[in-house]
Amino acid sequence: MADIREIDAGGRRITVRKDLRVPMRDGVELAADTYHGTEDKPRPALVALSPYGKELQALALTTPAQRRPSPMWDGCIEAGDIARVVAEDYAHVIGDLRGSGDSGGEMIGNYNAGGVPLGQDAYDFIEWVAAQPWCDGNVGMIGISYFGSMQVLAAAERPPHLKAIFVSGGHYDFYETTYHGGIMWFMPRAAREGRGGDSGIAHANVKSRMQQVHSPEELRELVEERLQDPDVAAWPNLVHVLKYPRNREFWFDIVLNHLDGRWYEERNPIALAPNIDIPVHLQIDQGRGWTVDGTIELFNALECPKKLDIGPYPPMQSRPFVEEHDTMFRWYDYWLKGIDNGVMDEPAVTVFVEGARERVTGSQWPPKDVAHRSLYLRPRGKLSPEPEPMGAEHAAPDGFYQAPLTVTDRVEILSWSTDPFTEDAELIGTGAAHLFAEIDQDDTNFILRLWDAAPNGDRQLITTGYLKASHRELDDRSTEGDPRHPHTRAVPVEPGAVEEYVLRLYPFAATFRPGHRLVVELSNDEPLADAHNSLLPPDAFHLPVGRPVTHKIYRDAAHRSRLVLPFTARSAAAGE
């Protein structure tokens, strides 16, 4: 039986129902807590669902919001500001997904792709909430990251009482969430295992999908095959995960599936977008390009009433999550309470432009007309609108040797820069980096970071691009300034051959002010610490290259290495 009590929080009394049991259609019960005002009346409800544990989310009542790099920041407290939800006269309902927290059942694989669909559970959960006496039958959802992805999965199932969703910081293309340009990213490991500022999944009955579908002998062969990758074999944490996967079941599955394809597509919420027929508001902050990319892709795939809001840098919101609530309540007041506040009269797309520190609006992404222009890599670390006129015999390639991090803590970085801009240059959209490179191994990473460098020496990260050299193949979705890679196979590089590698630069919006320079940096590993990395959790880095590699970057008349960038109309490129 549920425990019903009243508490004081945020200067008001809140009715709390602890440990409710919510029945699923297969007989499994999910655990939930509810929070609402003490008045005995029905009200709209906002549902939050994740495997991180409802008790962790309850800390939003007692833990002041923290920003990175605070050591108190916990990336999994993402269900929203409980006291604020109650103050706005909504019921806040926080549930544990099956196999996690206090819920029954089992979770098999990431997003339970090997078990009962999470969208199906969300349907049953939402319809149960709508039938409770404290709910008026109007339901929305709340929460970021995993909670955000759950909103999309739920909406695609079309529960009758789910009237709208507001998704902030969701993750969609799960391959792109874990392998940027084919390079493994460790932050999802932290969210699942509980590392580096994340509490992780509240394990109750979580199982590896790979262990469900493969025999022990097949798994041994797959593990040994994966350990043939020098990058994996050189990283102790991955060796440990592969040899001892217990309580690391999800990351074990991810490490064994390093190529895109059916394994990831079947849990890709973007594929479900055509099923969504309720209003959707999507919000994401800049500085985490891969999630901006997925948010825009989902926005474009939706055919329902929709909004897109791309906010300012930095990338990591507070924990407990408290941002975006003003916009969220305007959205839900309109769709759940029927208050005509004009929210649907406003532009569909709003984008914060860094540098100018202003918001621009439009009906689509990008919100302004853009023309992709090239900035060419030139000798002496220069970027120029004009290509190099001389051949390689006179414009010798740039280069760097990177020793593996097992023997050094130094990350080598090549850098090129424009001259200072003489007038505002506004860039909004995606971009590309075309690199003509020669390496002496069969694989490496290309990691590119684009900076806005101010005259006083301050720098802000604008966007990033990643590509594992063996994943260099492009597919037919690629256009100028918008390259796409299938990542469905790895093709080893012929050592000594000059190849063109095309990196996708994640979506961004920035104005380079007069006196500022655009700086591009290239490496095959990431700096161990810098101003941007300090804003991310400790585990938010990519798998380093486990072999020594010499890189030559050609940028002569026959090898026009360049950036292709989205300049808006009337913006001047550097040097023009």
UniProtKB/TrEMBL annotation:
Give the top-rank taxon of the lineage listed in the UniProt record for this protein: Bacteria
Q: Kindly list the GO molecular function terms attached to this UniProt entry.
A: hydrolase activity
Instruction: Cite the entry's keywords alphabetically.
Output: Hydrolase
Q: Is Mitochondrion one of the keywords?
A: no
Q: Which InterPro entries match?
A: AB_hydrolase_fold, CocE/Ser_esterase, Galactose-bd-like_sf, Xaa-Pro-like_dom, Xaa-Pro_dipept_C, Xaa-Pro_dipeptidyl-ppase/CocE
Where in the numbering of this chain does the Xaa-Pro dipeptidyl-peptidase C-terminal domain appear?
Answer: 329-564
PANTHER family for this protein: COCE_NOND FAMILY, PUTATIVE (AFU_ORTHOLOGUE AFUA_7G00600)-RELATED, PEPTIDASE S9 PROLYL OLIGOPEPTIDASE
Q: What is this protein called?
A: CocE/NonD family hydrolase
